Task: structure prediction
Amino acid sequence: MRVRAWIGTLVFLVVAPGVVAGLVPWLISGWREPAAWGPPVPVWVASAVLVLPGVWLLLDAFVRFARASGTPAPIAPTSRLVVVGPYRFVRNPMYIAVVAIILGQAVLFGNWWVVVWAAVVAVAVALFVYGYEQPALAREYGDEYARYCANVPAWVPRLRPWEPS
Result:
């Protein structure tokens, strides 16, 4: 089961965030810098501030699902609610990470169409979270999920990690 969870998690990582935060921004921007000499240092720094923590947060969240013997994919969930690591600060770290990665690319490549893509992704994610994911998690985990939602915000991280009792 653990091997299947890791394989499923890796496949989902490539298929979902890999396409949304990698392939599509590349198709939009061609990953071409706006000037032949490349972006200035502040642009590199601003991009890195978005992309690097976004990648770390995304990978960390995916690892936590695999360790819980499941995947982030709705078709192969974990048997228990994942409320460790970044999930102690915010309920949707993967979605936040994906949008941050996309915005970092928009900054680096100076491409407003990538910003538009980030907005489309953010709206689609919010519709998915509120229309499907939260109701499904409430049905699956009941009171445990209700307590989690009452203590951990969906989009703006807490300053201190939540300690489930």
Q: What stands out?
A: Helices lie at 2-15, 17-29, 41-67, 93-109, 112-151. The chain has one domain: 2-151. The chain has a mean pLDDT of 92.
